[in-house]
Amino acid sequence: MNIEVLKSKIHRVKITGAEINYIGSISIDEALMDASNIVAGEKVQVLSLTNGERLETYVIKGKKGSGDIFINGPAAKKINKDDEVIIVSYALIDFNNAKSFKPTIIFPKKGNSI
After folding, report:
1. Which of 15, 70, 81, 86 fits a disulfide with 27 by CB distance 3.0 to 4.6 angstroms?
2. CA dist list (Å): 84 to 41, 55, 98
3. Coil, strand or helix at 60
4. Domains, the chain, with CATH or none
5. b/e for 12-44, b at 16 or more Cβ within 10 A?
6. Using CA atoms, how far apart are residues 42 and 45, in angstroms rounded to an integer?
7. How confident is the model at residue 23, as a pLDDT?
8. Nearest CA to 81 among 48, 43, 114?
9. Which pTM does this prediction carry?
């Protein structure tokens, strides 16, 4: 049996831009992606600490070291520039392996830096 468990978490970062006229997704600084073990195209949940919104989208690689996190497309109507968010992804893992699995969780500093 497989179960879904937390794989990666970027805890408390600030949205640096929101663009409604975009196909969709969330762009994340490549350094944050690398540190959190999140890859381009991966499905993530974006949880707003500002307004309580929860949404799912996919990741686009952003400029490495920029600290930029852009919310794009329809999601920009729910989450805005300067909102504080948590970004999480999950993985399907065999139940027995899940017991010892350790997710990658990062706590970026001010400016979304590592």
Report:
1. 70
2. 22, 14, 29
3. strand
4. 2-93 (2.40.40.20)
5. ebbbbebeeebeebbbbbbbbbebbbbeeebeb
6. 10
7. 77
8. 48
9. 0.95
Which of 25, 36, 48, 89 is labelled catalytic? 25
In tens, the pLDDT along 4-52 reads: 999 999 999 999 999 999 877 999 999 999 999 999 999 999 999 999 9
Our answer to whether residue 90 is catalytic in this structure is: no
Which entry of 8, 36, 58, 113 is annotated as an active-site residue? 58
Q: Which residues contact 43 (CB under 8 A, 6 or more apart)?
A: 56, 57, 58, 89
Q: Which amino acid is at 14?
A: K
22 is catalytic: no
